[in-house]
Amino acid sequence: MGGIKALMPFGESTLLETVIANVRASLVNEIVIVLGSSSDEIRQKISFNQIKVVVNGNFRDGMGTSLRCGVGEVTGDAALVVLADQPLVQTRTIDRLIREYWEKAPQIAIPVYRGFRGNPVLLDRSVFSEVQDLSGDIGCRAIFGGHSESILKVSVEDVGILLDIDTPQDLQKLRDRAARTIESADLSGRQVTDRPQLVIVGEEKIGKALASLAKVMNFWVTVIDPFLSAQESPGADQVLHSLDFSRVSPDSFVVIASAGRFDEEAAEQALSIGARYVALVANKQRAREVLTRVSRDPEKLSRIRSKPGIDIGAEGPEEIALSIMAEIIAERHRTA
C-alpha cells in the first residue's frame, strides 16, 4: 500500500476506524482487534476504548495466525470475522448474520450478494478448534469443506461484502464501484443461440483475453462478475452481475478465472448443471483448496480441469487464454 493500510484516510477518518465504527453500531457485544505489522504506530493514532487488542507476533506467517490470535480471545458463543480492509460492509449486514445465527444455529454463516460469497464470516464456537489449527496464509475458507451441511448462506443486499482494498488504486476503485448502481442483465431465461456458448467467471486478464479470442471463434460469450460493465468487457455478448447458473445452458463451456474470489461457488454451480467443460484457472495450491471444498465425489472432481489448456508452453494471460481456447475447441469437436 506504500503505507500503513489501517491508517489510510477513508471518509472523515481512517480505514480501520471506519470498520470499527460499523461494528460498534451493530449487535456485536465484544470486539477483539488483532494487530501485527506497525502495531505500535496504529495504537498511537487510534483509540481502542472498550476493545480488546491482541498483537500477533507471528503476523509474517500469514492470516491464519491472526485468526488464531483473535478467536482465542473470544468469550462468546460465536465469532464474527471482520476484515479491516472492508469499510463498506453495512451494520445491518452484520446484524442480519447475527440474527440468522440466533434463529437457525448454523456452525458457519456467510453473507452472499447476488450469488457471490463475501465477508464477514460468522463462526460458531464448535469450529473454533479448527481455526486454532490454521497456519500460514490461510483464511476461514480452509475449514468450510468439512461443514458443507452446516453452512448457512445469508442473502444480503450489500455489495460492500465483496469490496476490499489491497492497493492504493483499490481505494478509488472501491468508491467508484460502491457508488455505481449495478443493473442486472435480463436473467428471465437461458440465452437461446445456435452458437457454442462460453461462460467466463471473473474479470481477470486471462478471462478478458479469452473473451476476445472466443468472439473471433464465433462463440456466444457470457461474462459473470458483480462489477464488470459491458464497456469493460468488449468481447462479451452479455455481462451478468449475478452468479446464477440456472440461467446458463448445460451445453456451455465454463472457465472460472476469478482470482480466488468466487471459485468454489462457480465450480459448484457449473457441476450442478452438468456443464460440458469446466476449467479452473488457479495456481496449484489454490486449485487443491477449491477442489477439496467443492466436493468429495471423485467423479465430480474429475470433471474440473485444474490445469486447463493445451501444453504450448504458454506464458502471460494472452498465451494462457489461447491454450485454453484450443482445448475448448478440441473438446467441442470431440463431443460434437
Explain what the structure shows.
By secondary structure, the protein is an alpha/beta fold. It folds into two domains: 5-168, Spore Coat Polysaccharide Biosynthesis Protein SpsA, Chain A, CATH 3.90.550; 197-334, Rossmann fold, CATH 3.40.50.720. The protein is 34% helix and 17% strand. It has eleven helices and 15 strands. The strands form four sheets. The protein has a six-stranded parallel beta sheet with strand order 12-11-10-13-14-15, with helices on both faces. Strands 5, 6, 7, 8 and 9 form a five-stranded mixed beta sheet that branches. Helix 8 (263-272) links the parallel strand 13 (253-256) and strand 14 (277-280). Helix 7 packs across helix 11 and helix 8 packs across helix 9 (284-294). It is globular, with a radius of gyration of 21 Å. Residues 181-189 have low confidence and may be disordered.
Write a brief caption for the model:
Helix content is 34%, strand content 17%.
Give me some keywords for this one.
5-stranded mixed beta sheet, 2 domains, Spore Coat Polysaccharide Biosynthesis Protein SpsA, Chain A, Rossmann fold, 34% helix, alpha/beta, 15 strands, 6-stranded parallel beta sheet, globular, 336 residues
